[in-house]
Amino acid sequence: MTASAPSHRSVAPTTSAPAGRFSRLYGARPWHLLSLLASFALTAYAVRRLFDETSAVAQIALWFVGGAVLWDLVLGPALALADRVVRPRLGAVQVRGVSPLNHLRVPALVSSLLLLVFAPSIFQRSEQRYQAKAGLLQDPYLDRWAAVTLSLFALSALTYVVAVLRTHRRGRLRAGHARARDSSES
């Protein structure tokens, strides 16, 4: 091998694998285990508080099952269908190399999940029970959900504009560097 020939030996990449005996045995750093234990403790506390009121346990279990079924059978397929309809139209549309597709997907997904979680309050399906328990009305939920949805889409549009401007600026900088390099070579 000559001095000018490139070396074909592969160098092992440096990894940021956690060091130490605990990390080797557990597979992650200790704070990961501590955060998991803290979340389990919080969950156990919440479940224990729920069992104090037995009617709430059945209602919450029904809500989780209903939410999972509603998501799997209605909202998930609706989002997939909307994505399938929008992707051919927007997938090819790129402004300065930035596609608007994910900037529509993310707020639509978050808005759909908020609708799923807060549907009884948004559609005022449990007005009497809610007022008896919380002492509040459910009237503002629909307006707030709409405001959050509009804010999500506005924030996503803003991030899209920033991404387009950054790629435009980056392209101008590259063109300027290329012109400077070409002029210095001549």
SSE arrangement, N to C: HHHHHH
Low-confidence stretches: 12-18
Average pLDDT, rounded to a whole number, is 78
From the helix content, strand content and strand pairing, which structural class follows?
mainly alpha
Task: Profile the largest sheet.
Answer: none
Rg calculated over all Cα atoms:
27 Å
**Number of domain units:** 1
Tell me how many strands there are.
Answer: 0
What does this structure look like?
The protein is built from six helices and no strands. Mean pLDDT is 78; it is low at 12-18. The protein has one domain (46-178). The protein is mostly helical and 186 residues long. Helices cover 76% and strands 0% of the residues. The longest helix has 46 residues, at 140-185. The two termini are 35 Å apart. Helix 3 runs antiparallel to helix 4 (101-122) and helix 4 runs antiparallel to helix 6.
Q: Which key features would you list for this structure?
A:
about 190 residues, extended, mainly alpha, 6 helices
Q: How are the SSEs ordered, and which strands pair?
A:
Blueprint (H helix, E strand, L loop, with lengths): L20 H6 L3 H22 L2 H37 L10 H22 L4 H8 L5 H46 L1
Short description:
The chain has 186 residues and is mainly alpha-helical. It contains 6 helices and no strands.
